[in-house]
Design a protein that fits this description.
The complex is a heterotrimer. Chain A has helices at about 55-60, 85-95, 110-125, 130-140, 160-170, 190-205, 215-220, 240-245, 250-260, 265-270, 300-305, 325; strands at about 5-15, 30-40, 45, 70-75, 75-80, 95, 175-180, 210-215, 225-230, 235-240, 310, 315-320. By secondary structure, chain A is α/β, with parallel strands linked by helices. In chain A, helix 3 packs across helix 4 (about 130-140) and helix 4 (about 130-140) crosses helix 5 (about 160-170). Chain B is built from ten helices and no strands. Chain B is elongated and about 75 Å long. By secondary structure, chain C is of the alpha/beta class. Chain C has helices spanning about 60-65, 90-95, 110, 120-130, 135-150, 155-160, 165-180, 195-210, 225-230, 250-255, 260-265, 305-310; strands spanning about 15-25, 30-45, 45-50, 75-80, 85, 100-105, 185-190, 215-220, 235-240, 240-245, 315-320, 320-325. Chain C is globular and about 65 Å long. Classes of the chains: A alpha/beta, B mainly alpha, C alpha/beta. At the A-C interface, helix 5, helix 6, helix 7, helix 8 and helix 9 of A face helix 7, helix 8, helix 9, helix 10 and helix 11 of C.
Chain lengths: ~325, ~290, ~325
């Protein structure tokens, strides 16, 4: 088996608390030890709700935030933001599309200039003719015609801005594209276009996808494998079919049950998995299962001891004490 | 798209044109500059020529003798002196503002972008400098280095950059959070390029507005210095000096105060209107 | 034409009756029409979902009814709430209606509540201010409402500040707040969009319960899943007009307007074939600034013909539902 392109091992990211003397009390543990990996040309979906750390994971992989512990490796090299030369090499191969289509483009630069900047910064291409043709090529690959190069972000729609962002990210032919909620801020009809575009690009150019989203249905369309995060920890990771057909972790089940089905007959019948109300600032007791306070199946063991990640068949791994019993429920 | 491929500034210019007060202010300022530069050419007098033919030396405005604004206590033509004073005041104001702009923007953008401890220290420096009594500081400078025009605008600029830095730092902090800055980092751009290419151009709007509002402050400050006797040296004059001199003769020769004060007030008024107009025109929410 | 021909249902009287409602904004590019003539009824006791994407005008429509448009907005036409005309009403009378007869729940739970006031104070503020109740009665009602929207330990929460509550809890408090004066109509503008999906499910449960108690709701949303679980009838808006109105089952099973059909097909679903390509609609919704000729959906409609580009179809009613299309599905032009 070849080395996976991306390897994340034991990643911990803490955001220091504010305040005089930086008292520990306010430290936010965004990620508490997460392992994921991604092979060449594969697509991995990271799902979870607010506070699960999925965006932090993206930022750590991109080198935008330094891990408190653990490591992120790209093609065998541990990411070290102080090594400028190798970081630049990595950046040529790992690119990103952010959530806010308008916010991710400099309002004072034209669409063409934003894409050209990527060529200049990452490949050092400055020759006007080359830049122009590469930019035009990138625009075409995302379905925008040449006229868009001279437009400013405020003149474009959300979907068009996002296409420009994708053009900027793919003009340097990266090996991995990280999408941080890339379609969440788009209209439904435009979302479908961008999802298809991402799927096409990934297939045609062999680009791997790390797709972060809270929308399980979209993830199901795009990703070969799905990882579910809860409060900074991995609770389940499985190939797509396995996760959606037979979810093992109670949280995964709750997530799937909570998605409102666009079918009135199904929707009115389906109850929600009774989850206890989430509390503001409710931190799980140290050493216990993070999901225990809300889990309908929690036992004393769950409240005392944190479950470790273990294989659960079909290429699935899950962190739950009771997954075997619950599988038969 | 209904918007023709217009740049950010084209829309702003259109909005500014619609603001009648701002347009009037701009025209007035332009006229003032033209007159102050070209005016003396039309007068028979120079700024230090003493007209001995007048008695008393200080004479009121009159068209017959060509002293359109009258003369000052030493018999020198006021119109020419006011023109010269306007030139100096505007020059000092522009240069001082430019100095404070360059230092303030660089300092503020860097502090705001880097954030954290660096930002903390950089802004503590600003706080400390703010606390220093600047008058004291300026007086020491003039005593040590003598009273050159160069020094005056340096001193004013050295003080003026503080507020500019604070304002720019606030903007930079807000911009830092936006996704396009993160995008620039993921493109591998080095910090100084990000600040120069992405932060500074996006604070230009605020900076321009603040600069037009700083210029009046600078002129006033220079006038204050002149009033105290610390401003420009003879034979150069500034509006402030003229006002100071005119104030002394307020009761006997009111025209000596009236002319320079009127011009000063007019400049300040125009700059304020222009600044307001620019702020509205450049407001991104209007787009 | 407002009601269906042949329907003599007096019981189904309209709580809120909109008649050719138009909303225009005065911008520096000229007048922009956000809503271009909407005629719609909200019947007592029903949950009407108003579905649309950006530029459809769905939010502006109801903001206009409540007199909450920004200063450069103008409302024309008619909107009658329980017989009282809202368009052109004085700010005073509108203020009296807002809160008392119409409750509004907005999208953002973070900003819906005043940060410096305790939850209990905010809940009671409106009714105490208007003199509807005295404090002990208001407090009892507030606690009861908090319980009914599923907030655990309401007495404790009563004394807390908004920042001590989670997003879901804040939204529930916002719903309770909208209910305090006992309004006849609840307008919920994207009430769960900003919430996590598990929290959304709980808030939707609350809304379902309230609907079960006979509350009339207008649910403004772009999420068809939410619509399927909550609404009785659905009105689909596109480019400032209503393009389809139908009962929720009819809409999902047999949409008449090509936009509705295309929208339904383009939603990613958990029960679709995994990894399948999403059926997408080309182009994007027209922006309110664009001047439209003919049917607004024509540029994106796979079945568009000359007639569609030449004249804008009107909303036509039949058998309790309506659509605005020259060649409604099924069958399209062949029919």
């Amino acid at each position: 088996m070849s080395t996976p392109l991306l390897e994340v091992r034991g990643l911990r990211v803490d955001y220091a608390g504010s305040g005089f003397l930086r008292t520990r009390r306010h430290t936010v543990h965004a990620l508490r030890g997460v392992d994921v990996e991604l092979g060449e040309g594969r697509s991995l979906g990271i799902v979870g709700e607010s506070g699960c750390g999925k965006s932090t994971l993206a930022r750590a992989v991109l080198g935008l935030v330094t891990p408190t512990a653990g490591e992120v490796s790209w093609r065998g090299w541990t990411i070290d933001t102080s090594d400028r030369a190798r970081m630049l090499q990595m950046r040529r191969e790992v690119q990103v599309v952010f959530q806010d289509p308008f916010g991710s483009l400099d309002p004072r630069m034209t669409a063409g200039a934003s894409v050209a900047e990527a060529l200049d910064a990452l490949e050092g291409v400055t020759d006007a003719a080359t830049v122009r043709s590469r930019v035009a090529g990138a625009f075409r690959s995302v379905g925008l015609d040449d006229g868009f190069a001279s437009r400013y972000p405020h003149e474009l729609s959300g979907g068009q801005c996002q296409r420009v962002a994708i053009a900027r990210a793919t003009v340097v032919r990266p090996r991995l594209l990280i999408c941080d909620e890339a379609v969440s801020a788009l209209d439904v009809s435009v979302q479908a276009q961008i999802v298809n575009l991402l799927a096409d690009l990934s297939r045609r150019q062999g680009i791997g996808l790390l797709f972060i989203s809270h929308n399980l249905a979209v993830v199901r369309h795009l990703c070969d494998e799905v990882a579910v995060l809860y409060l900074g920890r991995l609770v389940e990771r499985a190939p797509r079919e396995a996760l959606f057909a037979t979810p093992r972790h109670p949280y995964t089940r709750a997530l799937l049950a909570a998605v409102p089905a666009p079918d009135p007959r199904v929707a009115s019948r389906l109850g929600t998995v009774a989850l206890a109300e989430e509390g503001a600032g409710l931190s799980p007791a140290a050493g216990a299962c993070a999901f225990a306070p809300r889990c309908p199946h929690a036992t004393e063991t769950c409240r005392r001891q944190r479950p470790e990640i273990e294989p659960a068949g079909d290429g699935t791994v899950v962190a739950c004490h009771r997954w075997r019993e619950l599988a038969t429920v | 798209m209904t918007d023709a491929s217009a740049g950010i500034y084209a829309g702003a210019w259109r909005r500014l044109r619609r603001n009648r007060a701002a347009v009037a202010a701009l025209c007035t300022l332009a006229a003032l500059v033209v007159v102050s530069l070209a005016g003396p050419a039309f007068s028979a007098y120079s700024i230090d020529h003493v007209d001995w033919s007048l008695s008393p030396l200080a004479s009121p405005p009159g068209t017959a003798n060509g002293h359109w604004f009258g003369t000052d206590g030493n018999g020198r033509d006021l119109f020419v002196r006011v023109c010269a004073g306007t030139q100096v005041s505007l020059l000092v104001a522009l240069l001082a503002t430019a100095v404070s702009l360059v230092i303030g923007v660089a300092w503020g953008a860097t502090a705001g972008y880097l954030g954290g401890r660096v930002d903390g220290w950089m802004m503590r420096v600003v706080d400390v400098l703010y606390a220093l009594p600047y008058m004291f500081f300026v007086i020491i400078l003039t005593v040590v280095f003598g009273r050159s025009l160069f020094l005056i605008f340096l001193a004013i600029g050295a003080v003026g950059w503080l507020t500019m830095a604070r304002i720019v730092r606030g903007q930079a902090l807000a911009l830092r959070r936006l996704a396009f800055v993160d995008a620039a980092i993921t493109l591998g751009l080095p910090t100084h390029r990000i600040i120069a290419r992405h932060i500074v151009p996006n604070v230009v709007g605020t900076v321009v507005v603040y600069a037009t509002l700083t210029v009046p402050q600078v002129i006033l400050f220079e006038s204050f210095l002149s009033f105290l006797g610390l401003g420009v040296q003879e034979p150069l004059t500034s509006l402030g000096r003229l006002v100071a001199e005119g104030a002394l003769e307020m009761e006997t020769a009111p025209w000596q105060l009236l002319a320079p004060s009127a011009v000063l007030a007019l400049i300040l008024l125009c700059l304020n209107f222009l600044g307001d107009g620019l702020r509205d025109a450049l407001d991104p929410r209007q787009r | 034409m407002r009601s269906t021909p042949g329907s003599a249902d007096v019981a189904d009287e309209a709580l809120l009756a909109l008649d050719d409602l138009r909303v225009t904004f005065d911008t520096e590019q000229g007048p922009v029409q956000a809503v271009r003539g909407v005629t719609l009824d909200v019947r007592a006791g029903e949950c009407l979902a108003v579905v649309g994407e950006s530029g459809s005008g769905k939010s502006q429509l109801f903001l206009a009814c409540l007199g909450l448009l920004s200063a450069n907005g103008q409302t024309l036409g008619s909107a009658r709430l329980q017989g009282v005309e809202l368009v052109g009403a004085t700010e005073r009378s509108l203020a009296a209606l807002r809160g008392a007869r119409v409750g509004l729940v907005s999208q953002d739970p973070m900003n819906a509540l005043t940060p410096h006031m305790k939850i209990g104070e905010q809940l009671m503020e409106f009714v105490l201010d208007r003199g509807h109740m005295k404090t002990p009665e208001a407090r009892a009602r507030a606690l009861e409402l908090m319980r009914s929207v599923g907030i655990a330990e309401p007495e404790a929460r009563f004394e807390q500040y908004p920042h001590e509550l989670s997003g879901g809890q804040r939204q529930r408090v916002a719903i309770a707040m909208a209910f305090m004066p006992g309004p006849a109509l609840l307008v919920a503008d994207e009430p769960t969009t900003a919430l996590d999906v598990t929290v959304q499910a709980q808030v939707l449960d609350v809304l379902r319960q309230l609907r079960g108690q006979g509350l009339t709701t207008v649910l403004i949303t772009h999420d068809l899943g939410v619509v399927a679980g909550l609404a009785d009838r659905v009105a689909v808006m596109y480019a400032g007009v209503v393009v389809e109105v139908a009962s929720v089952v009819e809409l999902f099973e047999s949409p008449r307007h090509p936009y509705t059909a295309a929208l339904l097909e383009s939603i990613p679903r958990l029960d679709a074939k995994p990894g399948a390509r999403l059926a997408s609609i080309e182009g994007q919704p027209p922006r309110p600034q664009e001047r439209l000729q003919g049917c607004p959906f024509a540029p994106r409609c796979p079945g568009a013909r000359e007639r569609c580009r030449a004249s804008e179809p009107r909303l036509e009613w039949g058998a309790g539902r309506a659509s605005a299309c020259h060649a409604p599905l099924p069958g399209g032009w062949a029919a």
